[in-house]
Structure prediction request, 150 residues.
Amino acid sequence: MAAAVRVLCLSGPNLQLLGTREPEVYGKATLAEIHARLVARGRELGAEVDARQTNHEGTLVDWIGEARASGFAGILLNPGAYTHTSIAIHDALKAVSLPCVEVHLSNPDAREPFRRRSRVARACIGRVAGFGADSYALALDGLLRVLSRA
Ligand code: DQA
Prediction:
């Protein structure tokens, strides 16, 4: 049997609080539940998903930078508020040059003006936003379609 495609899923600051964090914006699912669903969806599609969360920008930069050498074929990334500020994460994505899908539970474009700018978008192949917890699974489907074409 062919080896499973490996996908790295990274979530940034405050996403460990999903479930209780502004549920009217982000929904009621916890990050553990979202990760479990993503891993299960990955198995159905022949992919192995490694899902992690950190509140630290440098840790996201480290994980992205190591992703190719660690054998990952692509990245799902919800950078949280770093979406709107982090040139370092943008640069890490450019440097590692793996296909990355930007993921958001909410639709940042429909919220406060400061959320309308994504610093990471230029380093991503696409974006899934506004579907709550389903954004992660939808992004995985899209990423795997792109990888299967490569
Ligand atoms: C978010 C949107 C960001 O603007 C916000 O800072 C987050 C979560 C989302 O998933 O909707 O922390 O990335």
Notes: The chain is about 35% helix and 20% strand. The CA atoms of residues 71 and 137 lie 21 Å apart. The radius of gyration is 14 Å.
